[in-house]
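Consider the following assembly input.
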Amino acid sequence: MGSPSPSARVSAQRHRAAPPPATRFDRRLAEILTHATDVFCKKGYEGASMRDLSRASGMSLAGLYYYFESKERLLFLIQKHTFTTIVHRLKARLEGVGDPEQRVRIFILNHLEYFLANQSAMKVLSHEAEALKNGFASELAAIKREYYRICVSLLDELKGDRKLEFPTRIAVLSLFGMMNWIYTWHNSRVDADAEHLAREMGDIFLCGVMSGGKSRR
Amino acid sequence: MGSPSPSARVSAQRHRAAPPPATRFDRRLAEILTHATDVFCKKGYEGASMRDLSRASGMSLAGLYYYFESKERLLFLIQKHTFTTIVHRLKARLEGVGDPEQRVRIFILNHLEYFLANQSAMKVLSHEAEALKNGFASELAAIKREYYRICVSLLDELKGDRKLEFPTRIAVLSLFGMMNWIYTWHNSRVDADAEHLAREMGDIFLCGVMSGGKSRR
Amino acid sequence: MGSPSPSARVSAQRHRAAPPPATRFDRRLAEILTHATDVFCKKGYEGASMRDLSRASGMSLAGLYYYFESKERLLFLIQKHTFTTIVHRLKARLEGVGDPEQRVRIFILNHLEYFLANQSAMKVLSHEAEALKNGFASELAAIKREYYRICVSLLDELKGDRKLEFPTRIAVLSLFGMMNWIYTWHNSRVDADAEHLAREMGDIFLCGVMSGGKSRR
Amino acid sequence: MGSPSPSARVSAQRHRAAPPPATRFDRRLAEILTHATDVFCKKGYEGASMRDLSRASGMSLAGLYYYFESKERLLFLIQKHTFTTIVHRLKARLEGVGDPEQRVRIFILNHLEYFLANQSAMKVLSHEAEALKNGFASELAAIKREYYRICVSLLDELKGDRKLEFPTRIAVLSLFGMMNWIYTWHNSRVDADAEHLAREMGDIFLCGVMSGGKSRR
DNA sequence: AATGAATGAGGGTTCATTCAT
DNA sequence: CATGAATGAACCCTCATTCAT
């Protein structure tokens, strides 16, 4: 009860994919976005040229500009869509779940599942966090903050529920670190799938965080 | 007592900095390396131009090439020096310490201390891991592997000592994630110093990992 | 009569120039090629900068690269076109001519006529023979070899016809030397036109070569 | 007798090499000149960098400038020395020879012998004729003119002696073409030595030129 | 809806040369 | 006598972007 239950399962139910965009324009745009994501993932935002994107998407250089007004906006759209989606899914999954530990586990699973299912996009999101400037940067920062706040509140719930005392900020950021670092090492031929990883990272993180209430200080 | 002792202290003794390089050439080189590190940190490797480095180091563009044969080699030297130093210091600190938990805590402290004391260099090391190619990449990969192996062996010692069962690979990589992610959030005006961070991350990680032997599966 | 007839005439009929290339792109490309030829002629391949070519052709530096992927390929195209054309014309002129001496005279006239009508291109062809590397070099070498072989076979025909004994290789290469050296001295205000030159060089070369069967050794 | 005697022999007597330069400076300079000649031969004047010369001669970049005030002067010295030497040797060999045909054959032999014995230098002389500017160019042009005039006068003697009528200018320049072109094709493993080549080119050229008096026009 | 053609700015790198030592 | 250190100018080439069509 008071003790962590690291093996608590969170089912990795498949969410239905977002419906295909309505207009021809949006469909074509999404297509290009996908190719661009791969290129940014492979070469980095600065390292990728519009010519690379043109080649990858099979569209002329000038044609790209019909869909995106700039390379920076292209990155922005990728990051925004990725982030928005992950937040959106998280909210849906959290609905109706009351147990604080379970809720944190859902957070972790949601993150890792999306991460592994959309590795390129998530790497671009994680790795190119600083590439955007001014307006783009701040709009994205807002989403990021929301996501961060959700995690904070989940941990605060947990703390309240179990009378724990760990430092929330560091815990949250450590958790993000554990999870986001994945893009540097995950090898789908060697490493476990999202569900396993989520359980294992969840175990480490939750046990770590929850033992704090008892033995520390 | 078998139970983790998260508050175990590891003194953060200052190591004397490496002696200044002997030759004038090496000294000038190191100077440029320092400026370049800052620029790479701020703009990224791809985003930084040799002209930026020239400006930052107060040396003519052509002058830089007297010291470095290419931009890539410049990055290589930065990363190699940083990595070599951190490994070197770690080995010195581990010497004579027998307790497995203590040894892991030393690893964490050493990493974070160096990270915060050399934020730019460590960000360049972490963030630009993929920028190097071929020969440069493989030479650096060798050092990286050594560092990784040390961490693995520390955790294996801990596992053996306490009869634990957590998955080492994921534990190690989670730990690296927690620590390396710092560069994305650490704010010296807000966040604690290396010693505190090391204790807190150590607590989370060690408790997480060490509770595994008892309650899981 | 067995004796050389040095004054044998070869009419220098004008061939209609190749029709202008079909596409806008090709026309623009040819235009640039012409300017580049002049610049390479004046400054040499190494000595000419892309900026020089840009200036000469009235197109921006970057614009040039829309037509040519590299300076080397630019030179290649010039040389290939020049060589291909000269070979092509030669074959057309040789058709239907049976007399061996006449055929050699046609070879010389064809070479000199094209040389003087396209001095820049021919100088670039002669003088920058070593500037191309690898793939470019070998493709051009193939054309060169074909041209060389044609000349060899013409001289061999002559030898067979007149029972001569001169060393073909040296004769051919001497002839090429005589002709190609023109770019170092020909001054259109002082020197004769192609037809005269061809007759005179033809006289020297053919008499030299044909007297061999009788008086030597 | 009135007929050409193409096989007339010209002994290829070895001239003693010029005495070693007196001063240490001059000796070192000559050494560097030799290395530079090879580099210019291999890469061309424009294509060769001072760094290439430095590497080839084993002397520091700055050190070279103690001996030569500029790259251009370096080329000048090479060309001047080469040309001066060949003219000097020619004059010595012509001394005391009266027969016009023999004198022309000496000219050819002298040129080819020096050419093959000093291929690099002669290629640099032939190929980089236009690289020099202004003062350097004109000083070299003077030597060149002298050499050219000698050849003209030799042919005029021959014409007078045998009542020939060929056009001297074209004959001379054709002869130079035949000889100088050698650098583009001579392969010491395949092609004959200077004496043979001189006889064969002499045969072609002299027969060609001498038959002119009888059958032409 | 999409492209071919074009560009100014800037990329990394090398150049011939200098000068204090 | 010779060099290490340094530089401004220039190198070839690619960049993100535009615009008439």
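Residues 50 and 61 of chain B are 7 Å apart (CA to CA). Ask yourself how this observation constrains the way the partners meet.
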